[in-house]
Amino acid sequence: MVVIHKGRLKRKESGGKYKSARAKRNFEKGSPPTKTGVGKHKIKTVRTRGGNIKSRVLRAEKVNLFNPKTKKFESAKVKTVVETPANRHYVRRNIFTKGAIIETEKGKARVTSRPGQNGSVNAVLI
Fold first, then answer.
1. Maximal CA-CA distance, the chain
2. What is the DSSP code string of 22-81?
3. What does pTM read for this prediction?
4. Where in the sequence is the domain holding 111, given as residue range(s)?
5. Spatial distance between the Cα atoms of 15 and 106, rounded to a whole number of angstroms
6. Which terminus of the chain is more exposed, N or C, with fewer CB under 10 A?
7. Residue-by-residue pLDDT tens, the chain, 126 positions
8. What is the CATH number of the domain that holds 86?
């Protein structure tokens, strides 16, 4: 199913409908959310506009963890998702997005990257 992100609203402020002046265009096309989960590492590459490539993390078991005290990066295993600002139901399904707080083997951390867009999962220890 195609997701259309751009374009104006279908209804006027008064509630009336706009008449369609043209068909939907290919450059207005979007994609459904990736919903990165906890599990065995899996990446999907997607062709984007202009022939560029975007990596989407579908599942991740490890995270690049930044420790602010030592100012060093280290790899840590993801245990579970504690809370997510994007959707409260994502916690139950272990889906993490940017800003989500995850439980790792080193402690709690906040996700700073966009796993569905960047192709990697980066986090900062809290």
1. 60
2. S---GGGEE------EESS-EEEEEE-GGG-EEEEEEEESEEEEEETTTTEEEEEEEEEE
3. 0.80
4. 35-125
5. 53
6. N
7. 678 776 677 788 999 988 877 888 888 888 888 999 999 999 999 998 899 999 999 999 999 999 999 999 999 999 999 999 999 999 999 999 999 999 999 999 999 999 989 899 999 999
8. 3.10.290.70
**Element spanning 116, H or E:** helix 115-118
Closest CA to 2 of 39, 38, 27: 27
Amino acid at 2: V
Helix or strand or coil: residue 20?
coil
Domain membership flag for residue 70: yes
The DSSP element (H or E) to which 4 belongs, if any, is strand 3-4
